Amino acid sequence: MATDCEAWLNANPVEAEDLSDSFVSGEEDNGGSNISNKNIKNEINGNWLSSSSNSIHEARLKAKAKRRLRKNSSRDSGRGDSLSDNGDVVRGTLAAPTSPKSKLLDRKSRLGKGRGLPKKGGAGGKGVWGRSGEVYEPQEVDEKDPNYDEAQENCVYETMVPPLDERHFEKTVTPIVQEYFEHGDTNEVAELLAELNLGPTRSEVPSLAVSLALEAKASHRELTSRLLTDLCGSVLSHSDMESSFDKLLRELPDLVLDTPGAPQLVGQFIARAVRDQILSKNYIEGYKGRVDCEYTRAALDRATVLLKMSMGGLRIDNLWGTGGGQRPVIQLVKEMNLLLKEYILSGDRKEAERCLRDLEVPHFHHEFVYEAIVMVLESKGEKTLKMILQLLKFLSVSSIITVDQMRRGYERVYMEIAEINIDVPRAYFILEQFVDKSFSMGVIDVKLRDLCPCRGRKRFVSEGDGGVVKLESY
Predict the structure, then answer these.
(1) Is 399 left (phi over 0), alpha (psi -120 to 50) or beta?
(2) Taking the CB of residue 180, how many other CB atoms lie within 10 A of it?
(3) pTM of the predicted model as reported, rounded to 2 decimal places
(4) From its phi and psi, is residue 459 left (phi > 0), alpha (psi between -120 and 50) or beta?
(5) Is there a smaller number of Cβ atoms within 10 Å at the N or the C end of the chain?
(6) Phi, psi of 436, rounded to the nearest 5 degrees
(7) 110 Cβ partners below 8 Å, 6+ apart?
């Protein structure tokens, strides 16, 4: 039988690759040794090997390479390379990472080397313009570029601010001036005006500031005069100042409707401007013989009188006075005493209210209450007591003096009544009488009335007076 098979194989030769596992000879069952000489493929570790060309050692190397590639690809999850069945390198397809340790957008090195810093110093990656602090060199212009324009090569680009028109001028400059009345910094106003392209409306800045100051306090007018002095030369010119005051004189009939004393105030502004060398000395003389408006004539006459008085020693620098808390305390106390004395002589409560407003010290009104009560204690008649009560009632109802300032004024008298009683023996009796009437008129409340100190009495009736009660024996 074996002889017949060998004869058939010699007649029909076949390659070793055409043989399969199912084709075995009879000698294989008997454990013969002729199989090792045949070109039959065997499988070792998943690799089909030919006994004639490959060995077990090569199969082990391929299996080891597969295991190493499988281990490395677990981190890249299909993005790395792999080996085919015959050992060739095959590029894997891009897939999303499945390992929790992998990060798709991680810029750190995956080699495990270095200090863990970002690659390229943080300058790499999509959407990154470069590392921080990097300075780019100027880019050279390519003359062969089809978009190259020789006329634009030396152009300088600047930000242009459109000129401010008359419609938006008042809305833009008014908040700047009103804010200046709060902080008083002329440099800030100059910087804000320099940023604006005022254009033809430049000459209207002084007139707008003065018109706002006419309706404000005396301290605001002093600030306005300082502002005009600091702006002249840096932001505004002398011609702008003159044209602005010309506009003020023309608009005086309209300004009088809101501010009745506008002609006198504008005249004071003109005198101060001439004194500060903002306006020329011949500015007032230029209007002689050609003034028809009575308000303009009154303003110019006021300025002329003030300038003549300055030659006799009047300081126009203090024309508006020192506003509010900038005054020394001693000066404020003197002015309050003069105010009270003038009120006792005239009895004009509205004038006293106006003078107290002009002092611009609402935080110091307790001193006014204190001085008024002390004046009552030092007086000898009932007239002063009644007039001071009426004045405090009037100022309390009009909210010129707040409840807190009124309370502090009374408490100061309570604390110093012992010292006042040394000079005024009847001070306790007069104070108690004044406090009771103040409570009955609604100037103070019950708590403040109960705090009034009183000197202890041993008896109301003397032994030899026949039972007559002494109301003023304290």
Answers:
(1) left
(2) 21
(3) 0.50
(4) beta
(5) N
(6) -65, -40
(7) 75
